[in-house]
Structure formats: C-alpha cells, structure tokens
Amino acid sequence: MRSSNPVFSRRGFSRDNGAYAGFGTQQPQAGTTTNPYATNPYATDPATGMPQAPVRGNAMTIDDVVSRTAMTLGTVVLTAVISWIALPVDPANINKSYGIAIGAALIAFVLAMVQSFKSKPVPALILAYAAFEGVFLGVISSATSTYISPGVVIQAVMGTMCVFAGVLIAYRMRWINVNRRFVGFVLAAAMGFMLLMAVNLLFAVFGGGDGLGFRSGGLGILFGVIGIILGACFLALDFKQVEDGVTYGAPREESWLAAFGLTMTLVWIYMEMLRLISILKGD
Fold it and tell me: Residues 64, 255: contact at Cβ < 8 Å?
C-alpha cells in the first residue's frame, strides 16, 4: 500500500499485501507477511511486536518522530512570526511583501521536490523548507488577518490543531481503517481536487476575479471543507506510515521524513482552514 504523501511514497513507508516494503530495495514476496527487516537488529516481530534482537539505539521511535516534527513545525512557526513582524503588510509595502511571500513559496516548493527525490533525508534541507514555508505563511496570514478577516489566524490554528487531534484519536481507536481501498480513494480525490484548483487558478489568472468561483461563496465553502477532509485523510496515511516504520525497525534518520510529511500535511490543512473560516465569516 503506497502512501499518497509524496515524501513517504518516494522513499518507502509502504506496505504490500500486509508486508512492509521497507526503505531500501529489499521487497517482500507477494502474499507474504515476512518482515524485510528480519536481518535488521533493530526490527521487531510483526506478530508479537517484540524486538527480534536487542535494540542498539538506531531504530526509529515515536519519540524521534515527535522531536523531529516539533523542530520542523517550530521552524515554520518561528519564521512565520518573524516575517509577520518584519514584513508588515501595509499599503506602502504590500506589493513587496507579496513578492517576498511568492518567492518564499516557490523556494519552499523546490526544496520539497529536491528532498522528495533524495535517497536519504537531509535535515538541513527539510529545515530550510520549513523556514521558507514559514515566511510564506507569515505574510499570507498577516494579510488575511489585516485586510480580510481579523482574528482568523488564531481560529485557523485552533481548527488545524483540532483536526490533528481528532484524526490522531480516531486512528488510535481504529475508527479509521487505512487499507488499500482507503488509499485509492484518497489518491483519486486528491488528484481531482488539485486538477480543479489548477483549472480555477488558470481562469483566475487569465480571466480575473476568482476564476470559476471554487474559492468563494457556496462553492468556496464546499471546496474548503473537501480540502480539510483530504488533509485529514493525509494525516491518517501519515500516521499509518509512521506506525509501520516504527514497528518494522526503520532507521532513525527516517524520522526526518516523517516530520517532513506531517509538516506538509498540517500546512495544507491550515491554509484550507484559513480560507474556509474567512468565507464563513462573510469576509
């Protein structure tokens, strides 16, 4: 089962017929549940959950994922706050601020793509992505709060945290069954959603206004909700891939990829939440 997250799908974090596909080139035989990390001294037995050999401290753990995610998200938040303060979105500087935000977003996108095609996670690259993403979010959030919907940023942050907590609880309680059908549905929905947004953007660029109206009014609310639901589905996939990585003894360095993927998903949810709340407030 391949993750829809571009980071996870590139480097592994996948299962095939119930067997973990691993982070390297070793693949399980079809229809088996053999752990490809059976020769890895850090791997655990999937049947018992117990270590197959004494752990020597090099296997990925939940604590590793939490600490790396905290560092990555902390970098996003810190640079967002700095850019909010240092790049005020006022009539005299608004074009300059927007230009910096667009440039930061493009750099963040390039860094994300470079990391996605790297054979190993590069912490400096991931943190650089987080920093430029934070600059973009800081300017956009400042502009939205100042000119569109005052107070919306706090509401969007709280909404994002609630989505994260809700999906985590639902996943831990096994209310969400992340299987092949679930992945296929999320992939198809995500591709359709992104295609519609791309078409809407093209119409907006060449026709002016809001394009086809997918980002305002009733349609804006509908697509905002769909975007948040898709983000929640990505979170469930991310949790599943992290759980598999921990269970099957993935190397500790892979926790950086987990942090990278979770950060991208949370940024997605925040942006959709910011837009949705602004529309609901009638602004």
Answer: yes
Query: Within the chain, where are the H helices?
Result: 6-11, 62-86, 94-116, 123-143, 152-172, 180-207, 217-247, 255-280
157, two tokens: 């942050």
Residues 6+ apart with CB under 8 A from 277: 149, 152, 155, 156, 159
Residues 130 and 13: their CA atoms lie apart, in Å, by 21
**What are the backbone angles phi and psi of residue 27, rounded to the nearest 5°?**
-125, 145
For the stretch 32-71, pLDDT in tens is 444 444 444 444 555 555 544 444 468 889 999 999 999 9
CA distance 68 to 59: 14
The span from the CA of 257 to the CA of 268, in Å, is 17
CB 77 within 8 A of CB 134: yes
* Predicted confidence (pLDDT) per residue in 11-20, tens digit: 444 444 333 3
Q: What is the DSSP letter of 254?
A: G
**How many C-alpha atoms does 141 have within 13 Å on its Cβ side?**
27
Q: Are 149 and 138 in contact (CB under 8 A)?
A: no
Structure tokens at 110: 């390039």
Instruction: Give the chain's radius of gyration (CA, Å).
Output: 20
Beta bridge partners of 19: 16
Q: Distance between CA atoms of 193 and 219, rounded to whole angstroms?
A: 13
CA 54 to chain centroid, in Å, comes to 33
Per this entry, what is the length of the chain?
283
Angle at 198 between CA 192 and CA 201, to 5 degrees: 140
Among candidates 125, 133, 129, which has minimal Cα distance to 80? 133
Residue 258 structure tokens: 């987990």
Token pair recorded at residue 76: 């996003």
User: Can you read off the two tokens belonging to residue 129?
Assistant: 């992505």
Token pair in block for residue 147: 């000119």
